Every structure is written in structure tokens, then in C-alpha cells.
């Protein structure tokens, strides 16, 4: 895999992780959502009016564009497992931004993911 292809994958994954963090930030502004038929429109309007959610959805669209470019250049069996880098970025971002726990078990899992991605990138 060349550096350009790897860059498309990594930037796509990073945008996807940023999207997750922005969506979480938007939901923190809203609070817990309880969706029913009677409040479907008002909740939808509330969600759609959150700037972090709009930003998160924009990041998703951009990440899909980069992902399509990457898939045109590399086997999906190589590219798809690289999405696990998103777990690493999201876990660290959630810890930093939202105070979510990074336990020893989570850190070990992150280390395993990083080793797996490094091995995969070398093939």
C-alpha cells in the first residue's frame, strides 16, 4: 500500500471518528432522547438544529468520499480492518472531551488494535 492510499484510509477514519465525537457532543446538548410518534417531529427538529450534529454528518459524508477513493485503490480485506483505528481515536477523544473512562482493559485493547493495524499496513 502506498502513502497516498494509506492517507485516504487514515483521513477517512479520522473524519469518521470526529463525526462520532461531534454527534456525541450534539446529543449531550439535547440530553437523553425518548422518541415516540407524538414527539417525532419536535425531536427531529431539535436534533437537526444542533451544530455539532450537522458538523458530524458533514464529516461522515466527507469520510465516505475518502473511503470510496481508498477502496478504488486497495483490497477491501486490507482497508476495512483499518477502520478499527477509529476506535482508538474515538476512545481517546471521548476521554479527553467528555471525561469517559480509559481503563486498563480499554488501553490494552487499543494497543492490540494498533499492533494489528501496523501488521496489516505492512502487507
Automatic annotation (TrEMBL):
<dbReference type="GO" id="GO:0009245">
    <property type="term" value="P:lipid A biosynthetic process"/>
</dbReference>
<keyword id="KW-1003">Cell membrane</keyword>
<keyword id="KW-0444">Lipid biosynthesis</keyword>
<dbReference type="InterPro" id="IPR000390">
    <property type="entry name" value="Small_drug/metabolite_transptr"/>
</dbReference>
<keyword id="KW-0997">Cell inner membrane</keyword>
<feature type="transmembrane region" description="Helical">
    <location>
        <begin position="104"/>
        <end position="121"/>
    </location>
</feature>
<keyword id="KW-0448">Lipopolysaccharide biosynthesis</keyword>
<feature type="domain" description="EamA">
    <location>
        <begin position="6"/>
        <end position="121"/>
    </location>
</feature>
<feature type="transmembrane region" description="Helical">
    <location>
        <begin position="78"/>
        <end position="98"/>
    </location>
</feature>
<keyword id="KW-0472">Membrane</keyword>
<feature type="transmembrane region" description="Helical">
    <location>
        <begin position="48"/>
        <end position="71"/>
    </location>
</feature>
<keyword id="KW-0441">Lipid A biosynthesis</keyword>
<protein>
    <submittedName>
        <fullName>EamA family transporter</fullName>
    </submittedName>
</protein>
<dbReference type="GO" id="GO:0009103">
    <property type="term" value="P:lipopolysaccharide biosynthetic process"/>
</dbReference>
<keyword id="KW-0812">Transmembrane</keyword>
<keyword id="KW-0443">Lipid metabolism</keyword>
<dbReference type="GO" id="GO:0022857">
    <property type="term" value="F:transmembrane transporter activity"/>
</dbReference>
<dbReference type="InterPro" id="IPR000620">
    <property type="entry name" value="EamA_dom"/>
</dbReference>
<dbReference type="Pfam" id="PF00892">
    <property type="entry name" value="EamA"/>
</dbReference>
<dbReference type="GO" id="GO:0005886">
    <property type="term" value="C:plasma membrane"/>
</dbReference>
<keyword id="KW-1133">Transmembrane helix</keyword>
<dbReference type="InterPro" id="IPR037185">
    <property type="entry name" value="EmrE-like"/>
</dbReference>
